[in-house]
Design goal:
It contains seven helices and five strands; from the N terminus they run βββααααβαβαα. By secondary structure, the protein is α/β, with parallel strands linked by helices. It has one domain. It has a three-stranded parallel beta sheet with strand order 1-4-5, with helices on both faces. The chain has a two-stranded antiparallel sheet with strand order 2-3. A hairpin with a 5-residue loop joins strand 2 and strand 3. The model has no long low-confidence stretch (mean pLDDT 92).
């Protein structure tokens, strides 16, 4: 398994008041419902106030869809991103009211064993160029690196690689590093 700029075990979340907290501070104890496999979300299902907020952000999202480093994508991929980021359903699909409960359950499951992934070949590639800014930027970057190092320890064979020439989009900034790492992990798994 190769994880490129993977998520964190306990990610930071910005609250409406601007305060930044860990996801572990947010579960409300709600039961996570089964995955919905029918009745797709329709735009008409979105409350009017939420729909207005979503639509207000679509124009800017489309206009900035291919800002660097995404400008390195092929033209067809850039057109697809511009279209997708202009869709109400793209934004609505990212809303998960049970995310905090799901993350809490995953953390609890992970805590049951030191190596939840056993001996699975695992490489976590993390950015080397900081992207966090502001007064807490340095601390957030340190936490980002620590989170990725922690994810790498989920396997006895886990390894962390720092992509020194990349920000978050390692696959665009250092595609050869990603390809080489995947090839190495596949070769390791075949042994």
């Amino acid at each position: 398994m190769v994880l490129v700029e993977a998520g964190a075990d306990n990610p930071l979340r910005m609250m409406p008041d601007g305060k930044v907290v860990h996801a572990s501070e947010l579960p409300a104890g709600k039961a996570v419902p089964p995955v919905e496999t029918s009745s797709p979300l329709r735009e008409s299902d979105i409350p009017p106030a939420a729909l207005a907020q979503i639509k207000a952000g679509l124009k800017q999202a489309s206009e900035t869809a291919n800002d660097p480093p995404r400008d390195k994508l092929p033209p067809d991929a850039q057109r697809m991103r511009t279209w997708a980021l202009g869709q109400v359903t793209h934004v609505a699909a990212a809303v998960n009211p049970f995310e905090n409960e799901e993350l809490a359950a995953l953390r609890a499951e992970r805590a049951k064993t030191q190596y939840p992934l056993g001996d699975l070949p695992l490489v976590v590639i993390t950015r080397g160029i900081p992207e966090e800014t502001g007064p807490d930027g340095k601390a957030h970057e340190e936490e980002h690196r620590k989170d990725h190092a922690s994810v790498a320890t989920m396997s006895r064979q886990g390894k962390l690689i720092v992509a020194t020439k990349s920000g978050h989009h390692v696959q665009l900034d250092e595609p050869d590093l990603v390809v080489t790492t995947i090839k190495q992990v596949v070769a390791s798994a075949r042994k």
